[in-house]
Specification:
The complex is a heterodimer. By secondary structure, chain A is an all-alpha fold. The longest helix of chain A is centred in the N-terminal third of the chain and has 32 residues, at 67-98. Chain A has helices spanning 14-41, 58-64, 67-98, 105-117, 120-130, 137-143, 160-185, 189-197, 202-213, 215-230, 234-239, 251-261, 265-291. In chain B, a hairpin with a 2-residue loop joins strand 4 (125-126) and strand 5 (129-130). By secondary structure, chain B is of the alpha/beta class. The chains are: A mainly alpha, B alpha/beta. At the A-B interface, helix 3 and helix 12 of A face helix 3, helix 4 and helix 20 of B. Chain B: Residues 1-21 form the signal peptide.
Chain lengths: 297, 408
């Protein structure tokens, strides 16, 4: 070999590239391929088994004229907005409290983060029991003497979403807190010193200096929370299973129900395609904000 | 040394003999007390015949179990045999060639001659070939009452739905829940179906569900059924349990006065040691129209590569329909046998009522036999909404007609 031949670009880091092949294939075949397949079959009248008999947009028309689906979307919107607002605000508040150089910070952080280690199934079941009027919170308070105390959010169509929200917040805020805390710790001490020299109150420094500086952390948290909300499924299945009536139905449950129980794959695919669309609506602007414009180093 | 060799030789010969019992995994969703007692009878009979029953119970009811079963069959991990309801649930699996053809078993055992009503065998037949073994008949149109609740209040035990509704205020005043109802959609759907036969009558039911007459579905007679359902909704307002057997248990313990549930509720009363007629009362067809629909369970056998297993599958199919198994299983399950030529004299009051109705031919096909799972699921969702909100009967009826039209 003369040594003059330019190294072929494709062969640079060959070992690393070969090692990445399985992952690339998995992504292409399982994720991208599966997604495309689902979208394609959502335009067919597949029942129990997939078949290519085109029906155009029929599945989507039926989907959007179904009460259950519209109700699920409304539930998700309500839950999403509430959950987003509260996780982020409570998470930030907790992080600020944690940031006051308190004693036993590690202990508190561990306690706050523990619920996140539990799966949604466990969270859902635990809160189903806590909120059960016969053996949970209501019963405890009644036994302490308040005989008329009544707290039964899960069996009332108007309040069931709040019951889910409590469980969701209990599980998720600790994680948000940790992200925020990391963000707060990333703020240079000099900023604080400067603010103190200028005589700016602490709360003003937090709100007008630190929060704007933490923009990337907020955006990441927002995307993580939003993506989690759209695919919300196991928490609801475990806690209420869509009851009472359809008052806590979620889009992901509709997808499962129509794909498997109703043996109507086409309808389920149409619903999951709509869910994909909504995830993309969240993800694309984020990816653009995070990666667009900047050159990768 | 010599004896050792002989022993070794014997062992090698004997081992395959011991392993001759073919194992078949059987999946089903029978997990409540009465149900598992019944399924144990099947396992016992199959084991006694020299094969091995491997139990694959899936908890959570049919809506949970069926997707698991179907994905195992379509995903290439078929079980030896599996439960489905009579009707269209497994139709596409049969059409896709995934199920074992049982025609030779059916002919050898004269299923055509013994299975009654014949509509059950028709449900198993696709293109002239038999693909499932019917096991039992379950009718959903029953009203179950706790006698003690009424006698304690000095009331006569109601003999039909109208009397039940009329006495409900007194029951409620005594601090009891008049009607127990589990909060899963299929139970609301079942209660509605029972009210359709009971309040609406057979002709209405047939013209909507068999002749698919949409004008009848939108008509004033059907509106009456929706109004009756709205009454029932008020009576069940305080019932917050989920599973059907929890609701049945409320009736057994006297916490609730009655429940609309299929005849499988019978098994729960039996396990609790209650006696039909004295402790509890059952009213087929809601006591108004003594018709029952012939839904129920059938076993399907997915195609397997192993010919030995296939032979075992056919042995199991023949066994399920055999008279002895029919009697043993159905007595425990509280369901009706699928053949009329066996002795059910040990059956209790409630089952005898059912047998009489069956012998009299006052039967209609089950919802699963006349509508696809897609329509059934939509109806369940709609009923779930109707029973838990204050949706008006008129709105519900309009939605009902729309759903039925999607299945035409």
């Amino acid at each position: 070999m003369s040594g003059q031949a330019k190294p072929v670009r494709l062969l640079r880091n060959l070992n690393a590239k070969i090692a990445a092949v399985p992952m690339i294939l998995t992504t292409l075949v399982v994720f991208v391929g599966g997604t495309i397949w689902t979208v394609v079959y959502s335009f067919t009248d597949s029942k129990l088994l997939p078949r290519l008999r085109w029906v155009g947009l029929d599945q989507y028309e039926r989907l959007w004229s179904t009460d259950l689906w519209n109700m699920a979307i409304n539930n998700l919107l309500f839950f999403g907005v509430m959950s987003m607002t509260f996780t982020i605000s409570i998470g930030f508040l907790l992080a600020v409290l944690m940031d006051q150089k308190i004693r036993f910070e590690d202990t508190f952080r561990t306690i706050m983060l523990y619920p996140f280690a539990l799966s949604f199934i466990v969270t859902g079941l635990v809160w189903q029991w806590i909120l059960d009027p016969g053996m949970g919170l209501q019963e405890v308070v009644r036994r302490m003497g308040w005989e008329t105390f009544s707290f039964d959010p899960l069996h009332d169509a108007d309040t069931v979403l709040y019951g889910l929200l409590i469980a969701g917040l209990w599980q998720g805020t600790g994680f948000t807190m940790c992200l925020m805390l990391a963000g707060l710790r990333g703020i240079d001490d000099d900023i604080w010193k400067a603010a103190r020299v200028d005589g700016i109150p602490r709360w003003k420094t937090y709100l007008f200096v630190v929060v704007p500086m933490m923009r990337p952390v907020f955006i990441t948290t927002l995307v993580l929370v939003a993506a989690g909300i759209i695919k919300l499924y196991d928490l609801v299945v475990a806690q209420t299973n869509g009851n009472p009536g359809n008052a806590s139905q979620m889009p992901a449950m509709y997808v499962y129900r129509y794909m498997f129980t109703a043996q109507n794959l086409g309808q389920g695919f149409a619903a999951s395609t709509m869910m994909l669309l909504s995830v993309l609506i969240v993800l694309i602007p984020w990816a653009y904000l995070e990666f667009g414009g900047k050159k990768r180093g | 040394m010599k004896t050792f060799k002989i022993a070794a030789l014997l062992a090698t010969v004997a081992l395959p003999g011991a392993a001759f019992a073919t194992e078949l995994e059987v999946t089903h969703w029978w997990t409540s007390g009465g149900e598992s007692a019944a399924v144990a009878e099947l396992a016992k009979a199959f084991d006694a015949s020299g094969d091995k029953w491997v139990d694959g119970a899936i908890a959570g009811g049919g809506d949970t179990a069926r997707p698991v079963m179907i994905s195992r069959i379509t995903g290439g991990d078929p079980m030896g045999a599996t439960q489905f309801n009579h009707g269209q649930q497994a139709l596409e699996l049969v059409q896709a060639g995934l199920m074992l053809d049982l025609t030779d078993v059916a002919e050898a055992n004269n299923w055509k001659g013994v299975i009654n009503p014949p509509s059950l065998l028709d449900s198993c037949t696709v293109d002239g070939k038999v693909y499932c073994a019917p096991l039992n008949i379950h009718s959903p149109e029953w009203l179950w009452l706790n006698n003690k609740v009424y006698t304690d209040l000095g009331l006569a035990v109601p003999t039909n739905w109208n009397e039940f509704v009329a006495t409900a205020p007194q029951v409620e005043a005594a601090g009891k829940i008049p009607l127990a109802l589990g909060r899963q959609p299929w139970q609301s759907n079942l209660a509605f179906g029972a009210l359709t036969i009971g309040v609406g009558g057979l002709d209405l039911w047939k013209s909507i569900n068999i002749d698919k007459n949409m004008d009848a579905a939108a008509g004033p007679d059907m509106l009456k059924v929706f109004q009756a359902a709205a009454d029932a909704r008020k009576l069940a307002a305080k019932s917050t349990v989920q599973d059907w057997n929890q609701a049945t248990n409320m009736v057994i313990t006297g916490e609730a006065a009655g429940q609309i549930m299929g005849d499988w509720a019978q098994g729960e009363f039996q396990v609790a040691g209650k006696v039909a007629g004295t402790d509890y009362t059952c009213l087929p067809g809601m006591g108004l129209n003594a018709y029952i629909s012939t839904g129920g369970d059938a076993f399907y056998f997915p195609k397997l590569a192993d010919p030995e297993k296939e032979a075992a599958q056919k042995r199991l199919a023949a066994l399920l329909v055999s008279p002895e198994v029919q009697v043993a299983f159905n007595l425990k399950k509280g369901s009706l046998p699928i053949r009329g030529d066996i002795d059910m004299s040990t059956a209790n009051d409630c089952m005898k009522k059912g047998l009489e109705i069956l012998a009299g031919g006052n039967i209609v096909p089950a919802g699963d036999q006349v509508w696809s799972p897609d329509v059934q699921t939509q109806l369940g969702d709609m009923q779930g909404q109707f029973w838990s909100t204050d949706m008006s009967p008129e709105d519900a009826q309009a939605r009902y007609v729309e759903i039925l039209k999607s299945g035409l």
